[in-house]
Amino acid sequence: MYSVWKSLSEPKNDEEPHSKRKEAFNAKWNDQRKDDYALMDLMNAFSNCANHSFRSKADENGDLFKAFDEVFNHLKRDCDQP
Fold this sequence. Notes:
By secondary structure, the protein is mainly α. It has helices at about 1-10, 20-30, 35-55, 65-80.
């Protein structure tokens, strides 16, 4: 678990190293709650991966954006009224 967690903080092939990301990881690593941090970061990484893998792309036909706009505009009208 720790090796996978650590790999999340390391730059990927096309990324530049970020010292703040490494500092944040080191702070979590040295904390006594590092097991909790590891689990949360791994679950978050899995969730992000799953969301990008299974969701249809909104720009394929634009239907998702249209549906969102209709719902959002309706909610905005309802919420803007006192």
